[in-house]
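pinned: reference chain
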Amino acid sequence: MLNEREIESCYLGQFIPVHYHHNMLMDQNRMHSFKSAIAYAVKPGMKVLELGGGTGVLSFFAAAKASKVYCVEFNPDMVKEARKFLAINPNGEKVEVIHADAFEYLPPEPVDVVICEMIHVGMLREKQVEVIESFKRRYLERFGGPLPVFMPEAVIMAVQPLQQEYDFEGFFAPIVQFQETQVIYPGTVEMAQPAVYSVLDFTQPNDMMIGWQGKFVVERSGCVNAMRFVTKNILSVVQERNSTIDWLNHYMTLPLAKPVQAKEGDVLEVSFQYRAGGSLPSLQASLRCEVLYESALQPHHYAPAYA
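pinned: its structure tokens
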């Protein structure tokens, strides 16, 4: 019998395609944010572990200061890619690329920093949250405390009601969309302010189930037919400047099964539940939105939920 993780791996696909990793190298926001955060968090002589190394670029950033970097990758194609790239880059000799499952691997010695990149919005599809929670338990059993610093240190997730255009040259298709965060899309209308629905702090234990029920005040009349999911990775907390180094994933817009007509001032109630690492359909199936109060009945009594 396959266990839940094995069944979901078959359903979701075992590995992210190699070309997707190549595209990630061209994502300037991602590259600059991680390079800055790693340069801040990794001090000279530190030992670093990367869980899910991909092309090896984050391990490369760490190797600039670290004395040793363990780069763990389960996809054999990416293991070859990482070894090839690190061999032609400075400090590549300090990185050991290990073909192993991050759910099972522990380094041969204590490490100071663990990098585990969160690629997917809402902590869906991929298993980083589960990987980190499993790693913490096994690491403490073998080495005791303290735990290493994790990157990202935390993740903030928010949701926002939208009116989304789904007309593609006359073809109506309510599809899942991923949008860059710094681009204005004429077919996307924000119907209310975003609301934070979950904060994961990796210094603390985290539950695998993520659920939320909350309210929004509609800011303009129209049709709420989609929800935008926003994920901000707090890569490093810069204490001396009281600031953070962040990376914002692409927005994910999910169509609602039942669009809702709403007027300015109406109060919407939204709810959903899913498992960290679960599939998009599992989130979509639980997603509910309805008008809780109409503006004519409850004027000016409900403040918007801000992210």
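why pinned: The chain has seven helices and 17 strands. The longest helix spans residues 128-143.
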